[in-house]
């Protein structure tokens, strides 16, 4: 198979033949200019099954935003043998193109999860089910996401610590954020909140549309400052920073794994789907994992620990398949119960309103058809131009509704500013990625095809509603059942409605009125007076847009917390030699995108592991020396 064919295979599942033509053009152009050679580090070595060892010191399950970090840091100890298992395969050069982020969903990079219908959200989606993309690839969801680098509010982490999790306050978190970071903005890099020299490249997009300037100015006109939203204050507006390196996506695989690909003590096995953790039911000691690879079941032992970094959906699924979870649920599927814990509970996610669109009368927005030009490809080949925009998101804002005290700097709504809208790809992919029905799409967006627009995605930062993940069956190949319970607590809806109002107010500022911006209504809400709370609620329930931040399903907490699954050292309660290090351990959802916080969790979790085992080895060595000297 040719190199071009290999990369195009990635997108064989895409619904639109037109999009495949565009991918073919872009792929051929990138390959012609050898963009992949711009990478400092080559692709990872996929260790064949027959070359895997029978046992390793550590087995890390999942090479995503946390697992890649953990594998890197553990393998820094040359005497420790580390195995990293990943169900997916490696990235392609198309996944590197920032503007194509939405197109990666529903490809083989994606687990293609869907929520269960709940009747009060996602009503414009097929069968009332939201798509929940999760990365099935080296780098995990850092390969599918929109690359935005945001950390959350200081109070988020101080709340974690106050809940009985010492060492997880903001001061500790900031240390680990900075440990990873290599910030390319010279001004930010000099501040106390950022750093250079880490594995993870963070930078501004190299291209900015005229609409971005209007977004920042509109924020000022509403009384908000233009500031670093990862710095001293969170309320305000900002030009988006992201995990982008020389104009291309910087996933955690690219950042943390490629530079160490030749470490002899690290083995990486792709297309290795872990089905369960091996646990002695008598001693409750985890001693290895079972995984499926090329149609065969394999088992590998861990002499020190198994680290579960499979994410907020897959980690609870694997725990439950291994006999760790709610007793009644496991018994229902005839899975022997080893430890009765609230696995799968405490599910939280960021939800917002998709399609909050404003049409304009100048050709300044991002439309897909304008991007696929020789000029755009040439600019991307040198790391510049509109193809470097992070999924179309150019600006970020954190704002305060009437439900919070603005002086406390703990905003409750986030805006993603997009210099385009759901119709800006002419229906090629975002419609499919979001799972919108043909009927809703045609009613709402068909008449706007080809028209310039911008949109805001107002997001509820700290939902009170809690969801649940349950097993569908005892077959590990069956996807779990996902119940997000969006808006189960009506206060969430009330808060998000206020966020929509702020978005409408932004569109009416002089900065945007210069483009003669006008609101695009939802015809399915025409039976309600426009611009009322009820109208906005109708919009939200129809186009309920998750931004793919599920967390909390293996909650971290002290021993007296009956809902906790792991302790503050990330050890699974009641099980020895098993830890969870990923988004599922978050007690509460952070007030921002979750990729950077999960990388931070990976960094801190790896340090916890190293400190524990280094102390144990040092103690054992001292005891041996003492015995020898008797």
Write a structural description.
The chain folds into two domains: 247 residues, FAD/NAD(P)-binding domain; 234 residues, Glucose Oxidase, domain 3 (2-Layer Sandwich), CATH 3.30.560.10. 29% of the residues lie in helices and 18% in strands. The chain has 18 helices and 26 strands. It is globular, with a radius of gyration of 24 Å. The N terminus is likely disordered.
Let me know the largest β-sheet: 8 strands, antiparallel
Main structural class: alpha+beta
Question: Number of DSSP helices?
Answer: 18
CATH first level of the largest domain: Alpha Beta
Determine Rg (CA atoms, Å): 24 Å
User: What is the fold-level CATH name, i.e. the topology of the largest domain?
Assistant: FAD/NAD(P)-binding domain
- Looking at CATH, the homologous superfamily of the largest domain is FAD/NAD(P)-binding domain
Shape: globular
**Count of discrete structural domains:** 2
Alpha carbon gap, first and last residue: 66 Å
Give unreliable regions as ranges. 1-8, 10-17
Q: What's the architecture of the largest domain in CATH terms?
A: 3-Layer(bba) Sandwich
Number of strands: 26
Helix content: 25-40%
Indicate the mean pLDDT: 93
Beta-strand content bin: 15-25%
